[in-house]
Fold:
Amino acid sequence: MTILIFLLLAALTVGCAIAMVAQRNPLYSAIALIGVFLGMAGIYVTLAAPFIAAIQVIVYAGAIMVLVVFVIMLLNVEEEVRRPIRLRYLIPLGVFLAALLFAETAFIIYFIETSAYNPPPATQSNVGLTASVGTGLFTKYLLPFEITSLLILMAIVGAITLARRVPALEVGGRRMQAATTESEKPSAAD
Amino acid sequence: MDLSNPYIQAALQFLAIFITFNVVLMIVAYTVLAERRILGFIQGRLGPNRVGPGGVLQPFADLLKFIFKEEIVPDKSTRFVYFLAPLIAVTAAMMTLIVYPFGPRVTLPYFGQVELVIARFDIALLYVLAVTSIGVYGIALAGWASNSKYSLMGGLRSSAQMISYELSLGLSLVGVILMSGTLDLYEIVEQQSGWYGFKWNIFPQFIGFVVYLTSAIAETNRVPFDLPEAETELVAGFHTEYSALKFALFFMAEYINMFTVSVLATTLFLGGWNVPGLALLFSPGSIPFAVFSVIGFFVKVFFFLFLYIWLRGTLPRFRFDQLMSFGWKFLLPVALLNVVLTATLVWLGVL
Structure:
């Protein structure tokens, strides 16, 4: 039963991931990405990590992707036109890197399956519960947590700085730029 | 029949979910009728009273009409998304229904001790927030896929509004979570029992309650926050291009959302199924105790539904800039203040 649910969720996740890359309409890609997040949240639930699953849906599917969809809708992004691939020599490199990734994953799975260490079954531990996640986050992993939030804060400040309009200098209630252009005009006429 | 068999348990669970969905759909249908009758009363007219005695069969007449209407799909719409959007809206609205506890522990013959909740798990409250946050897509995508300027404006407005008010909504719940120390809705309700109703969270969390109620009305796109479907400006907003049963699905989703938001308010702030003084009359765990508790629960929920209708008959609509500045510059700081205040009091051991 568990394996059936896992296969279902995995199929959803992988299928949506492929659709996300393959789609040329940006909004379809965004919807597929939401599907990926939902599928991954389902997998987290089967791994006895309900808190992570809920946060995954709230933060990624519910907040970030809503903004992405919002921007796509607002800007009315056109469908991508298929262009000739200019960096043709990178294709074999991409295939090689994908193969490397698969080999790495296979090696890790093989390593875990054959290792002597036997963790307790996930259903018996309370690792994924809210209380244990909170306790861990604010005691043992406080420093990484704080550093991450600092990083995110920097990103927010950076984004605001980039998006902000530069205010014109004000001198005596009049705009500096307007004043200089006006004073220059008569002199040019002279 | 062995009740501990997982397959039988799953079957019972499915049965319970099926019954819940149907009961809630009936409640929703009659909320619509109640809304029309009460609005009629407020506006000094009768409202629908022709189908059946006093109009009680009106919801079924409406449903038949929705089914037999012609379905018009706009020519240049994005087909797949156009059909997907109402499904997302209804599914997201219905999915939250399973986590709400609607009654106390009761000892039933043959079943033994039963908790009157369909699914009880550690993160019930987060689950509710997660699923409702998915509901935004139904509206946003409907607006985009219809390929009409009114729909698009409605969809954009509603996603902007829902993102803005989701923040205050979530923060207003934090106060309750801080006080009860759990996300399990059943336990939150149980902690509010006793003291003849003075243990309800509405008393220590009054600010949170008001913020929750306001942002919940905005989240469900109801008057006075119904900017996404402002008739005078946008025809019907995001569902302008939807007809027949697909429109009915959006309509249903809106009223289910109203219902779930009322249930959440009851559960978190008004003590859920706790009825003050009921333990004096019946012993907890007996069947009459459970019956009256469930009735008490629904009375509270219907009070909130009535409040929604009352507001619709009373208040005019906000302007969009007013809506945004109210959400970001007033509601959010108040919610944050409430969180800080509650956290301090809990830390000092007062609450």
About this structure: The radius of gyration of chain B is 21 Å. Chain B has a mean pLDDT of 84. The CA atoms of residues 230 and 285 of chain B lie 48 Å apart.
